[in-house]
Amino acid sequence: MGVITIDRHIIEQQSKIPTTASGQFSWLLCGITLACRMIASHVRHAGLADIVGATGETNIHGEEVQKLDDAANRILQECLGYRGNVGIIASEEDDEPIVIEEGEDGRYVVLFDPLDGSGNIDSAMPVGTIFSVLDRQGGGGALQPGCQQVAAGYVVYGSSTVLAYTTGEGVHMFTLDPSIGAFVLARERVTIPEGKVYSINEAYYRDFPKGYRDWLDWTKGEGYKARFHGALVADFHRLLVDGGVFAYPETGKHPKGKLRLLYEANPVAFLAEQAGGKATDGEVPIMSKRPTALHERTPLLVGHASQVDTVQRFLAT
Ligand code: FDP
Fold it and tell me: Do 276 and 191 meet the contact criterion of CB atoms below 8 Å apart?
């Protein structure tokens, strides 16, 4: 069988689905994986080149833009801009979506957070890229519910660089082999193990809704471990590998949750469901939510199905 690179995997997956077998969709996904390899190289060289620290600007969310945020955003824009089939791109770093191709050729919308957890850069902690792909053929633009995603994935730039993606046929994981510059298949059809691990910023305990506080109290003495990286992609990757549950609920500072529905919660929810898990905002499934704004925020509870159910029982009381 030989080495299965991500490009080969994507093409083989797509050839199984006659409606998307034109190669156009594969060409689009290969643009994302190329961009992520380039971002990985920037992340690895961050301490060596003059690309650590802030640009001095703030983004639409009022957050300081890091130099690597800016570089990662430009790389994705560039790699997707010439695909020919990308109509709209929307990024955490840009106020408005960028229209690349108005006509029918611009069939896909790509939404992304180019460098998730960028607060981790200066301390050499993991960061990531996360993306969601929508089809415009049903007439929708960037504001489509998550259940209409045609692909989603992330790359975590950690002790190794790992990519996971889904096109609705399971979740597949690849490791970047730096010696050949390619993502190589590591695991196919990943499922979330149950795992007694929770990932939540417990420093906000007093600010969480009562159900979350009751659940956190209950976990003590139940054999749980806590893991929180401060980067959604890294925490979600750990969850896919080791199991458990991740939550970022409503807080006083972020009454609607902190994470962004379209390019953080939706792709994570699609991956989680494809890996046998669940993702909810505490009331409704994340992928059923109808977005009304590009940078809309949502509470997020995601993980192994039975672990999510346990939290929800506390939320319901
Ligand atoms: P960041 O702002 O550094 O990009 O995307 C929001 C996010 O990171 C998530 O990746 C992460 O889970 C969360 O914020 C961490 O927020 P807190 O520092 O409030 O815990």
Answer: yes
